[in-house]
Amino acid sequence: MTDIEAPSSTELEVSLFGPGFGESILIHLGANSWIIVDSCITGTSDLPAPIAYLRSIGVDPSSSVKVIVATHWHDDHIRGLSTIVDHCHEAEFCCSMALSRQEFISNATKFEVNNTIVGGSGAREIVKVLNSLNGKSPKRAIAGMLLKSFPGSDLGHNCNAELWALSPSDKQIDQFLSDIGSLSPSVKQTRFRLSSEKQNNGSLVLWLNVGDIKILLGGDLEETTDQDTGWTVVLSSEGREGNRANIFKIPHHGSITGYSSDVWEHMVCESPIAILTPFNRGSKKLPDKDDAKRILCHTDDAFSTSNHSNKRNKPRDKIVDKMIKETVGKIRPVQVSSGRITIRRNLDGDGKYNVYLNNGACHLSELAS
Amino acid sequence: MSDTASQLYSPEDTSSRPLDRSQLIKQYLEERDIRREVEKRFRESQDMNPSFEVVTSKQVSNRDILTPNFNIAPEKKRAVFQVLQEWEGHVIEVCDDHFSAELVDITADESVAMEEADFSIDEVSGSDTPLVKPGGVFRWSIGYLRSPGGTKKRVSQIVFRRLPLWTKKDLQQAESLAVKISGSINWE
Prior knowledge:
The complex is a heterodimer of chains A (369) and B (188).
Chain A: E1 11-17, E2 24-30, E3 33-37, H1 49-56, H2 61-64, E4 65-70, H3 81-87, E5 92-96, H4 97-100, H5 102-112, H6 124-132, E6 139-141, E7 145-150, E8 161-165, H7 170-182, E9 206-210, E10 213-217, H8 230-235, E11 245-249, H9 261-266, E12 268-276, E13 279-281, E14 284-286, H10 289-296, E15 302-304, H11 318-328, E16 332-333, E17 340-346, E18 353-358, E19 362-363, H12 365-368
Parallel strand pairs in A: 3-4, 4-5, 5-6, 10-11, 11-12, 12-15
Antiparallel strand pairs in A: 1-2, 1-17, 2-3, 7-8, 8-9, 9-10, 13-14, 15-19, 17-18
Helix pairs in contact in A: 3-6, 5-6
Chain B: H1 2-9, H2 11-14, H3 21-46, E1 52-55, H4 57-61, H5 63-66, E2 79-94, E3 98-105, E4 115-120, E5 137-146, E6 152-160, H6 168-184
Parallel strand pairs in B: 1-2
Antiparallel strand pairs in B: 2-3, 2-5, 3-4, 5-6
C-alpha cells in the first residue's frame, strides 16, 4: 500500500479500491481534504480500504476526511463503512434520501435485531452506521442536489470544488422503498438473510467539479426504459451545467445493464480516464469480454482494479480439499486481491494525469482477451 | 491430569500446589456444562438431534480433561463426528439443479463470506429443499464420523438452518429501535 507518497497540497487524487464485490473511492481535493465514497475490506487489513490507504501514506483520517458518502446500504457493498464513520470525526455523512425514510430504517432493524446469522443479516453495516449518526446532521441526497461546496482558498490551489448528487429521482426512491417493503418480515416467518438483489435502483450517482477537472462517479446505477429512473434522469439532472467528465467511474462493474450510450456521448469528454471494479459473485462475472471491448471502443484509458484470474484459494488440509472437490467441485474466493487505481493531477501543473496501478489493478484490455 | 487442568483454568495460582478433590469436581462440572451447552447449540443450529457426538479438533486434544474419572457413570458410547472444516453459507441464487452460495469460514473464525461454491440440489436432504432460496442459511460440515466400533469415514453434510421465526416481540423491538434511531439523527 505504501508504493506512493501522499499527494501534494495542490494535487487532485482519485483512488478506486475493489476487491471483488463492493468498492470504495477516495478523493483528495487539495490541502489534505478528502472525500470517501462507500467502503470495502480488501483482505490484507481489517481496516476499510480507504482508511488503511490513508494511514499508509501518513494521513490522519480523523481530521482529513471531510465528507463520507454511502451510495448503497447492503452489507455486501459497504463493508467497514461504520468503521469509517467512527474514524472520521470531522466528516459530514451523506446518503440517499431513501435511507433516511422510516420505512427503510424500520425494515433494516427488523433483520438486524436478534440476528444469529454468522455472516450478518445483510443490514448489519447500515444499522451500525445509522447508530453512529446519533446527534449528527447528515445530508439526504436526491437528484440535482448540491451536497457540499469547498472554497478554493481552503484547498491550496484556489479552484473551487462542488459535490453534486445526480440521482436518485423521486420515482427511484419510491421503487426502492417498495422493493425493500416487499421483503419486510412478518410474525412467524422463518428468518432469512436480506438479499442484496434489487438495490441498485436506489444507487447514488455523484458529480464532482474541482476547477477544470470533472468527475462522474456512476455508482451501480443501471439503465432502464423508464424516463423517470435510471440514467435518463442523470442525463437531465442539474449540477454539471453541460460539462463533461474527464474521469468516469463506470457504473455497475462495466455491465451492459449499466451502459448508456448517451452518457458516453453527452456526459463524458472524448477518451476520458475510465475506471471500474470487477464483480465476482455467483454465476455473474463482470465485466465480461464484451463489456470490456465495448468500453474500450470509447476510450483507450480504461482500467480495472483487478482481473478475474487474480484469485487465490485458501490453503487447507488435503482431506478437506478432497472432500470439497467431491462435494462441490471447487470453492471460489469471492474477493480478488486488493487492487487500487490511483489517478493524480496537479492543479497548478501542466494538466497531465498520472495513473498508478497497484497490486493487481490492470488495463481493461486484460479483461477483453 | 491436575496439572493440565490447572494450566487451563488458573495456571498462576495453582501451578505449585495440587488441586483438591472438591476443586476437581467443580472444574469437571463446569467443563461438562460448557460441553453440553456447545452440543446443545450445535444441535439447535442444525435443528436436529444427531445420533453422534460432535467434537472439534481442540476438544479431541483435551479429551482426557473433559472426561476425568470421578466414579461418575460413563456415558453411553456414541458415534463421534470430528469436524475438520465448517462453513455457514447463505444462498445467493438458485438455478434448476443447483444453487450458488457464499460461505463464511467458521473454522477460521471469520464473520464475512470470503468464498463461494455451487451445490447440487441433490446434496440437500428432501426436508430441507423448501429452504433452498435466496437468503436461506445452512451449515456445511466436513469431517470424520467415527462409529462406536472404531470405524471411521469421511463425511460432508449440508444442513439448512431452521432459523428462529420472527416473533411479535422481535418486530416490536425492531420498530422501537428504528424510532429511536430516526429520532436521534438530525437529517438536513
